[in-house]
Amino acid sequence: MFPEYRDLITQLKGHDHHFTRLFDKHNELDQKIKNMEARITPGTHEEIETLKKEKLLLKDDLYLILRKAAAATT
Question: Of 66, 53, 51, nearest to 19 (Cα)?
Fold first, then answer.
């Protein structure tokens, strides 16, 4: 996710608790979705779609934080 911001992600994960919490939640949802799609854990199509929407909102939030932080360093 966001390879162009790899270094900035590392910095933020070390200093920004809000960013870290969002980043970890995004990864947690990603794994949960993968497990449901692979039928490792139970989940309906609707549950998976709901989780995907939640994950996308988190990704949008993370991207905004990254853009703001990148702008502040230039």
Answer: 66
CA atoms within 13 A on the CB side of 58: 20
Confidence (pTM): 0.90
19 in Cβ contact with 2 (< 8 Å): no
Structural domain spans, the chain: 3-73
Q: What is the per-residue DSSP string for the chain?
A: --GGGHHHHHHHHHH-HHHHHHHHHHHHHHHHHHHHHTTSS---HHHHHHHHHHHHHHHHHHHHHHHHHHHHH-
Per-residue pLDDT tens digits for 51-66: 999 999 999 999 999 9
What does the block give as tokens for 40? 């490792």
Cβ-proximal residues to 73 (8 Å cutoff; 6+ apart), any chain: 8
